[in-house]
Write a structure and sequence with these properties.
single chain; 81 residues; mainly alpha; 2 helices
Length: 81
């Protein structure tokens, strides 16, 4: 099975470079409204974190907010070895 370009497991993985994560500020579509999936997940994270859900975020802003709320709630964290 072939892996798509830019997916983990590429040549850079061995060097510790993660080429699957691009800064949201550099996204070409980052200024578009957040996706339905982002909105749904943000609603869940916001409830768990006890904060207000912000419904008018861009894709880039939503991505950053998801990262913030994951850190606050412990969701999406990789298990410690």
């Amino acid at each position: 099975m072939r892996r798509a370009t830019g997916v983990s497991g590429g040549a850079n993985e061995a060097s510790g470079v993660d080429n699957t994560r691009k800064d949201p500020e550099l996204w070409k579509t980052g200024d578009e409204p957040m996706t339905g999936a982002q909105a749904s997940y943000l609603q869940t994270l916001s409830q768990e974190a006890g904060v207000a859900f912000e419904e008018n975020l861009t894709k880039a802003e939503a991505s950053k907010r998801i990262d913030e709320l994951q850190a606050k709630t412990g969701r999406g964290q990789k298990p410690q070895d």
